[in-house]
Amino acid sequence: MTEINVAPTLSRRTMLAGTGAVALSPLSATARGASKKVLQLFVGTFNTSTTRGLTPFTLRPSDDSWALGTTLPDIQNASFGVYGLRHGLQYLVDEQDKGRLAAYRVSAHGTAWERLADVPSMGSNPAFITLDEAETCLVTANYNSGTVALYRLDPNTGLPLEPPDVMQDAGHGPNTDRQQGPHAHCARFSPDQRFLYTVDLGTDEVVGYPFDTAKPALNGRFTAFHATPGSGPRHIIFHPHRPFAYLVAEIGSLVTALRRYPDGRLEQMQILSTLPPDFTAHNQAAHIAMNRAGSRLYISNRGHNSIAVFAIAPSGKLTLLQHSSTGGDWPRFFLLLEDHKRLIVANERSGTLVLFHAAADGTLQPTGKSLSMTEAVYVGRTA
């Protein structure tokens, strides 16, 4: 075990450095500690010649004051993670060629991180991890290798049990620069926990696996949805109450509204651009999040440097409400703090965290508050 202490002060690189790559679920954070006066958060960064590590920071929603703490240099390439409520653990990827996954216990004030487990991600450049609802297993999507790994979790500790179950994706898409092979970029469970879905940017597919909590494994693979050829799907999110899902495509800058069927299939209902019609420069769509009511959808645009805000109708279809400038360059990730009516954007290239108010109608309003953080690629919450 490794304990990393921080003084309580308030202070696919190569290609992917230019194109981006992405834990806690953006909405699961809002269910914990809504009454806290000071939020304990952290920002993950990619390793470069000038930056390394994870940095805790605080936010006081009452006056929007925030400040960075002391960087933890041993927690590297933390580009995505997920919080496990059952055992109070933070799970993070180490996105590198020889990918790793680690489990941490974080102190109440977010100033001490104890590494309890560190295991291989079973692939190159893990970009996403997720937990099933009962927290019986942890799944990672490895971007460069196109592999998906499922770790069973010890029911007493929440730590990963080896060996994991591993599935290698295969195939390619029409974009020879970005889709020369499989690129698993996301893994999520359906709300009813009957299926695990993975998203492959390289093959333009959403892949499904029947899921059994009692015997978690990557069996029964099927193609749940074929995305627009060459669009490069990146992330998927499921409506909490209705049989809908939303798929964001990185290369095509598209969002597809999907109907989810009991057999696990997904069917297109609507497809929209994430960009204004007059924007013609290069863009790569990135992260996607939804409010708990399932009435608003948020998607980040890297290039246009905006958050696209959509209204979700009872039919599941989308209507664009707003393009809000992110106040920086290359918004790879954002964290929606719904209970506090705030949203934090991590602008990777400009190296900034930017704070927004979320209005009652879901639209975003700038607060004028930002923090400098080189290579900011992920934001999570510890308390």
Task: Tell me about this structure.
This protein is an all-beta fold and 383 residues long. It has a single domain (2-284, 370-381), classed as Methylamine Dehydrogenase, Chain H (7 Propeller). It contains 1 helix and 29 strands. The chain has one helix spanning 15-19, and strands at 2-5, 39-45, 54-60, 65-68, 81-84, 89-94, 100-106, 112-120, 126-131, 137-142, 147-153, 160-168, 184-189, 195-200, 205-210, 222-226, 233-238, 244-249, 254-260, 266-273, 284-290, 296-302, 306-312, 318-325, 331-337, 342-347, 352-358, 364-372, 376-381. The strands form 7 sheets. It has a 5-stranded antiparallel beta sheet, with no helix packed on it. A 4-stranded antiparallel beta sheet has the order 4-3-2-29, with no helix packed on it. Strands 9-10-11-12 form a 4-stranded antiparallel beta sheet, with no helix packed on it. A hairpin with a 5-residue loop joins strand 23 (306-312) and strand 24. It is globular. Residues 1-35 have low confidence and may be disordered.
Q: What is the element string, with H for helices and E for strands?
A: EHEEEEEEEEEEEEEEEEEEEEEEEEEEEE
Number of domains: 1
Could you say what the CATH topology is called? Methylamine Dehydrogenase, Chain H
Largest sheet, if any?
5 strands, antiparallel
Fraction of helical residues: under 10%
CATH architecture: 7 Propeller
Give the number of helices: 1
Which residues form runs of ≥5 with pLDDT under 50?
1-35
Structural class: mainly beta
The count of β-strands is: 29
